Each structure stands twice: as structure tokens, then as C-alpha cells.
Amino acid sequence: MILQVPVTAYITTNAYFFIHDGDQHGFLIDPGAEADRLYRIIQEHKFTIERILLTHGHFDHIGAVAQLQSMLKVPVTMSEHGYEYVENPTWNLSESFGEPLTLSHVDYLVDGTIISLKETPSFQLKLIETPGHTTDGAIYYSKSDAVAFVGDTIFKSSYGRTDMYGGNEEMLFASITKKILRLPDETTLLSGHSDPTTVAEEKKMPWYAEDRKDVIPII
């Protein structure tokens, strides 16, 4: 089961519940705001969240983490490069909005790490590093469910900005073309700020072209 929940503080961001249908255990991905609302959803659906997963460390993806971590008593996981953002309010952009934000007690994992449920280890996600929007960008891919939670690396018909701390356009397009668009065509891509899309659909975009004037980057 996948439940998409748009949450808003300064920016609306898609948070996702990725839940095993058998026992209602699962993961919460990118809880960027509205911790109390997300917690109510967990209670209403009787979810057991085993981990909070972060695609990158921008404030609109980590804003509700500290409060939920306190409520749920669960680990928080992200790319090994995430410390550059969650420990630095300038890099995670929260300082620009007058509310400096940092996180502690984060598990930093290397590229290729498999994250599994305790009781159902076959229910898993693979962390794949996709730097470019940020240096710590990562996606979480489930081959069995043909889905990838892609954060702000790629959107429906667009891609993430590279003009903020740690951004790098060359790295971003390498991440998109060499990692995301090499997943099976039927893979659904669930992003932080757009409707769902698929690998097959995004292969129609001019990702491989030198001139990308017709593709406007977002958030």
C-alpha cells in the first residue's frame, strides 16, 4: 500500500507511507511538515512505522522529522552525505525562512543499502544515491512493487533545481539518465512535488539532449 499525503508549511511536499498490506508495518518517506496530522493518519490506519526515510535534507522534506521521531521512537535514515544538510540550517534552507532546523540521531547509509521490515524482510527498499539537486540526493526503489520514491531528483516532465547549496546540473542529469531512467519502464516514479509518472513517460523528455530549454526545473 502506498499512501500519498501532501503536507504544507511554506511549501507543499508529498510525504509517502509505504506499507506492507499483511501486517500494516512500513516506512514513512519525507515527512516535511504537519507532524500531528501524519501521526493521526498512523493511528487511524493502525500503521506501525519502522523507519523514517529521507530522500534529501532540504527543510521541506525534513520539517516534521524531529517531532515524529520523538512520537514514534524509530530510526531516521538517509544517504551518508545527508549530514551536510540536516546539521546545517543554511544548507537545508530553513535558516532562510527564519526557523533554523537541524536533526540528530540519523542513520547515514551507503549507496545500495537494502532497507527491510523486521518481520517481513522481503518487503524492502533499496537506497540509490542520486546527487545533483543536492549532494545527498537518494531515491528508494522497490523492484517487486515497481515503484521508486524519487524526492526532488525528477518530477513529472521536469527535474530538480541545481542552483542551491550542493547542486550540480551535470551530476543531476547523470543521476537521472544513468540511474533512474535505467530502471524498468513500468516503474512508477513518486516525487516530492508533482503527480506520479513512470520511467517510460520520462524517457520521452529531452533528458539526453544538450539543449533543455523546453524543460523547466522546479523546486
Written description of the protein model:
With about 220 residues, this protein is of the alpha/beta class. Helix content is about 20%, strand content about 30%. β2 and β3 (about 25-30) form a beta hairpin. α1 (about 35-45) packs parallel to α3. The longest helix has 11 residues, at about 35-45. It is globular and about 50 Å long. The two termini are about 25 Å apart.
Summarize the structure.
The protein is an alpha/beta fold and 219 residues long. It is 19% helix and 29% strand.
Descriptive labels:
alpha/beta, six-stranded mixed β-sheet, 6 helices, single chain, globular, 219 residues, Metallo-beta-lactamase, Chain A
Task: Describe the secondary structure blueprint for this structure.
Layout: E1 2-8, E2 12-19, E3 25-29, H1 35-45, E4 48-53, H2 59-62, H3 65-72, E5 76-79, H4 83-86, E6 106-109, E7 114-116, E8 124-129, E9 138-142, E10 147-151, E11 154-155, E12 158-159, H5 169-178, E13 188-191, E14 197-198, H6 199-202
Parallel strand pairs: 3-4, 4-5, 5-6, 10-13
Antiparallel strand pairs: 1-2, 2-3, 7-8, 8-9, 9-10, 11-12, 13-14
Helix pairs in contact: 1-3
Radius of gyration: 16 Å
* Span between termini: 27 Å
- The total of beta strands comes to 14
Number of helices: 6
Large-scale geometry = globular
Helical content (DSSP H or I, runs of 4+): 10-25%
